[in-house]
Hints:
Elements lengths: L20 H10 L17 H15 L2 H12 L6 H15 L2 H9 L2 H8 L5 H15 L3 H9 L2 H11 L3 H15 L3 H9 L2 H9 L4 H17 L3 H7 L2 H9 L7 H12 L3 H7 L6 H12 L6 H15 L8
Helix pairs in contact: 3-4, 4-7, 7-10, 9-10, 9-12, 10-13, 12-13, 13-16, 15-16, 16-19, 18-19
Protein name: Nucleotide exchange factor Fes1 domain-containing protein
GO cellular component, one term: endoplasmic reticulum
Organism: Magallana gigas (Pacific oyster)
Amino acid sequence: MENNGGDRGPPDDRNKQPKSVGKLLHMCLETQSGSPQDENHVVQPMPEERRQWLDNALRDLTVSPVERMKVGLRILTTAESTEQQMIDALDEIIEWCENLDFAADFYKIGGYPVLSKLLPHKSAEIRWKTLELIAVLVQNHTYCQEMALKENLLPKMLTILDTDDDSTVKIKALYAVSCLTRDNPEAQKVFIEKDGFSVLMRAMQTDVEKLKIKAAFMLSALCVDRPDIKDVMCDTGMIDQLVGVLNEEHNSFHEHTLAALLSIVTNHQKAVEECQRPELELDKKLQERIRSLNGKDEFREESQYAKELLKIITKDDIEVQR
């Protein structure tokens, strides 16, 4: 995520942010022409860009991240706060929580109940900023994932993904759900119990291209994380619904649909048998698709997915007639 804070300096300083006041003072001296011990040393006015960067660096060295997050939480829970003030507070908390230590601190200072209250906010931007914060908090952070489940955030986010009328909010909800469930068996259990696969399938049936693609990616990722989940996918009719997508007029999303189907059937006999059901006519559809894409480089990956899927469900490496 782009950082709009004060650690963005002149090009030659970006990779040497000072970690102490002493180092900061040393960098101030380096802004002069020559060393102070040099007889040719000349004091020159500091360029405004560098002055601003050093001011921000000094501020970051002296500020308490926990205290700043507490200030943000007060803004988020005060009725008199404006929408812009709340958005700015969320932006700052997001920046602090990109540090895993501060992410844990956010829970300890009572941040998670505030997140629950913000999820149904009337402002779409506040809703999606809150979801982005949740994603930042739980991504690759076991403690924060546990606390998010304790706060019952996953079912709430699935509901938002399924019912919110703002496409950006839905996309951010899916992002947060994905961050929480990735490599997390407990979160995946809740996801299944709350009919998360049906929510994903409905996301793939919207007209929001980015949402559809991300939903298909998450479906494929779950197959890698938990092969046993494939049984659930078969039992809930996921294969029927994915094949149904292929029956629609050809579009760019079919590549991701085939990738998801391929992830489900790989090394899973039950899924293979589902795909072999005569009424689906999947083998026929795949052969037709391969023929129609032959020689079209822009659909090379989709064609390859179709060939691999066809090979698995027919148990033979069929040479499609051209």
